[in-house]
């Protein structure tokens, strides 16, 4: 029986699970007719994840939330799965890069993207800080990838899946060619990953954004405060990472 | 042979590995003489973690960074470690709560605490959003803990260790008793956890913050290469911050944000010639006067008022016809006052929401340091442009009386009832 994943279909956090499922030969299906902001507000959904964030995986043993935790679960369903490493130190390095992808890459991309998309207050100084931290993180990733094809070992692991999905939001929304060209090894890595058959099956064709996501106007002072409140609220229901 | 952990003492992320080691019977030692900002900048350190962040664990098979990954590694060193659960679904739930502790709890606390330390730009709307998100996460955690002693199963797991360490920073720095009392199950959980012998051995006595960590606005940012400076800043902060809380600060901050933020310029208002009017004295008088307000507080105000050092302004909301829903209007005004937090040292304000039925009128009175509305307020608080601002002419008795009425919340005000009166002080 397929495991059911509750989430929208273009969510990068959903991709993590679906790509991991492809690699592990596990059957995961997206729930039908999921509607963000509606389906995840029902009492049934909130019982699965009290925050109402997606994705959530329904398993025979009950629900799991947090996309990285779900991906790990899916990877473990297939015993001795090479995408989870084969030794204690490999596990550790895979987890190290999963956490790096989350706390350094995803967090700073989110801090750059969500305010621009109008989900949270746009504050130029905060954006500047986020971009400089992101560059620092990409710089560190770039040096690691200068001498490593994959994040850990000599094949694709769960760390690569999660890193690629997190980079994906940046590449399609914010990080133009002129921004990423400073990090050539990250570029090489990202494009070779999204062109793997298991990835492109889930993500489709990926195109780098030609411009930084424009600011959704919060410029009209008349509507600002209301809009801002609404946006803060929306920000709070944004999909979980 | 012991595994060597590179980090300063008092770092909550190092606690994760050390507590896990206690539970698992693994020998982990902190490196000797670690100096934040120095030891983690050496080429050897950067080889272990290209970002130069702590903690890093040295293992016989090479280094591991990211504190959760280190804690997991330590837990796995003990075969069939109950900290790691005993079934696929238990693993999954442990990892789910580890990730929740990281992306929801730790992020919210970090976005609240670090800007206040002065190591990152302090932006009130960003703080407001961080606190709201944190409350939502704590609410969800509270619900879960209402009928679970531990996060997963019936004993302590790695998820509890990581959650507790992340909550720790909040409890000792920003989350006062009045803040956490909204989440009684989280409180019960946290205090149970930090009093477990294995946790207590590493973390020591934990004391909840008595006040939210004060904004270190005027401090020079600490340069990571000169660890003397944070100490100076700390000394100055001691006046406001609880003493015992001041110590682990440098490590905690440096751990995440060694990258020096932009220096904060001194506020130009601090450079104005000194005024005989002390804003805090007025605020105290305003707050403490319970009887005979008109004579004591308002009389006192005009005695203190220094037109050379301060100015008074009326404000009038430009879009009163939009104020059709009472609580929306009230929220709008509360939001404005929150965003004015950056001017706490330089301003006093009264905001009246007027009328007994919609549309409500919003009018206010503000006292600002200096003869004009401070430029930084105009630049950073967008609400300012939503109001018409008129300088009060204090030689005009009618205007002066209007000031009195607004300070006093006089009702009826200009012939109408007050829906609410809010004070910024």
Task: Describe the 3D structure.
The complex is a heterodimer of chains A (241) and B (425). Helices cover 55% and strands 6% of the residues of chain A. Chain A is globular and about 45 Å long. Chain A contains ten helices and four strands, in the order βαβαββαααααααα. Chain A has two domains: 3-82, Glutaredoxin; 84-203, Glutathione S-transferase Yfyf (Class Pi), Chain A, domain 2 (Up-down Bundle). In chain A, strands 2-1-3-4 form a four-stranded mixed β-sheet, with helices on one face. Chain A has helices at residues 12-24, 43-48, 67-77, 88-116, 124-146, 158-173, 177-180, 184-194, 197-203, 224-236; strands at residues 3-6, 28-30, 56-59, 62-65. Chain A is of the alpha+beta class. Residues 219-229 of chain A have low confidence and may be disordered. Chain B is of the alpha+beta class. Chain B has two domains: 1-264, Glutathione S-transferase Yfyf (Class Pi), Chain A, domain 2 (Up-down Bundle); 271-424, Translation elongation factor EF1B, gamma chain, conserved domain (Alpha-Beta Plaits, 2-Layer Sandwich), CATH 3.30.70. Chain B is 45% helix and 12% strand. Chain B has helices at residues 12-24, 43-48, 67-76, 88-116, 124-146, 158-173, 177-180, 184-194, 197-203, 228-238, 249-256, 279-288, 293-304, 326-339, 375-380, 397-408, and strands spanning 3-6, 28-30, 56-59, 62-65, 310-317, 347-354, 361-369, 387-391, 418-424. In chain B, the strands form two sheets. Chain B has a five-stranded antiparallel β-sheet, with helices on both faces. A four-stranded mixed β-sheet of chain B has the order 2-1-3-4, with helices on one face. In chain B, 42% of the residues are buried. Classes of the chains: A alpha+beta (241), B alpha+beta (425). The interface between A and B is large, with 58 and 60 residues. Chain B: GO terms for molecular function: glutathione transferase activity; translation elongation factor activity. Chain B: Residues 213-272 are annotated as: Disordered. Chain B: Pfam families: EF1G, GST_C, GST_N. Chain B: This is Elongation factor 1-gamma. Chain B: It comes from Dioscorea zingiberensis. Chain A: Residues 87-211 form the GST C-terminal domain.
